[in-house]
Amino acid sequence: MANLQTIVLGGGCFWCTEAVYKEVRGVTDVESGYANGDTERPSYEEVCTGRTGHNEVVKLTYDADQVGTRQLLEIFFVVHDPTTMNRQGNDVGTQYRSGIYYNSDEQKQVAEALIRELNEEKAFGRPIVTEVVPLKNYWPAEEYHQDFFEKNPTQGYCLAVAAPKVAKLRKTFAELTTR
Length: 179
What we know:
- The protein is 34% helix and 23% strand.
- It is an alpha+beta fold and 179 residues long.
């Protein structure tokens, strides 16, 4: 029987983050959504205003016997810039902040320990600004956002931003991918 857990990650546009984690061995489900804002059941349009407080996120369900929380977070820190506040590339706003939204004390401890190690190593040349807070007020994104890269691989944003992140995953974490 699988040891299923969930964690929610905000690493910029959810299309990109979703595309990466759909290829990770042990991840059984990836759902794009919105988390840690104030509005109940926000829409994409509302989140894009930056006024709901929500972050664009992916909710990962994973078999902890196949892939650990630390491994998922190591991928997370490689495929986005955790040193920019409310920004990933050209995407700017609180909805693009770097965030780890945990469901257990163990996930919190793993995240905080990894961030401490990366900061001590000066892995990014600047301090990590990723927020590590409990998950609250999660709402799934609209259906047209789910599996977006898979359904739209030749769309401009997907080619320019998502595809390079997937390629980086395959190169850096080949042992953890399903391909």
